[in-house]
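Q: What would this chain look like folded?
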Amino acid sequence: IRCPVKECDEEILHGKYGQHLSSHKEMKDRELYSHINKGGRPRQHLLSLTRRAQKHRLRELKRQVKAFAEKEEGGDIKAVCMTLFLLALRAKNEHRQADELEAIMQGRGSGLHPAVCLAIRVNTFLSCSQYHKMYRTVKAVTGRQIFQPLHALRTAEKALLPGYHPFEWKPPLKNVSTNTEVGIIDGLSGLTLSIDDYPVDTIAKRFRYDVALVCALKDMEEEILEGLKAKNLDDYLNGPFTVVVKESCDGMGDVSEKHGSGPAVPEKAVRFSFTVMNIAIACGNESKRIFEEVKPNSELCCKPLCLMLA
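A: My prediction, written as structure tokens:
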């Protein structure tokens, strides 16, 4: 056979043709020439065959893979085949398909974790209804549930709210209830009213300060550990830590428009919150900072203390 590659034109024996062709690395269409059919029916593509015919054609390869798996991988044929498939996909730069397959192999599915979806919703300032619309559209168009439904996001959100993590103060705090349950209360309870002319009715969801602080620190666990590691302070895992907190209160505007239906009421939503500004650790006589909030005025690092409708 004469080699079809430009500037080669070498004549090769039929038996050695495939071996010669593999030396032309730059040739992309070499598959067109490599399988030579000696008459008879044209060879059908492997994927267009019936399952029985596929088994028949691949029986020799299957036997070799089985022998390899038993010798090297404890008999796990599936892992060997999956890995071969992944390598073939990546070799052809089909990384998206490879990533999806890898996710399915590891039992993750191709969907995003609810906490990741929550982060996307918060960081892109999507309302619940806007997010739900996107979730439905993506599911309908792709046929796969890549984003998680709203109820999964709400469950993930509970881990970020005070009262989720169990903790214990040593020594115990005096005159502080051990109850971390959060109920709907009058947001101004305990305050002496100074506005006699305009009495304000409020309902609020108020969190205990220490419960909120524990939740905030638990949420920042990774940053604290990274800070300790960066300053070679792994021996100081038990503290004592000094936590500097900035308290803030922000009106969230007139919420009467946001109900959808019902009468227009002149309600204001108010959020009392705090931000962890920095965390330091006492090493001997000096104090070393292991965390500092880079965007202290961002609403994304505000931790809720009291959510109130006035």
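The chain has three domains: 59-106, 114-159, 184-309.
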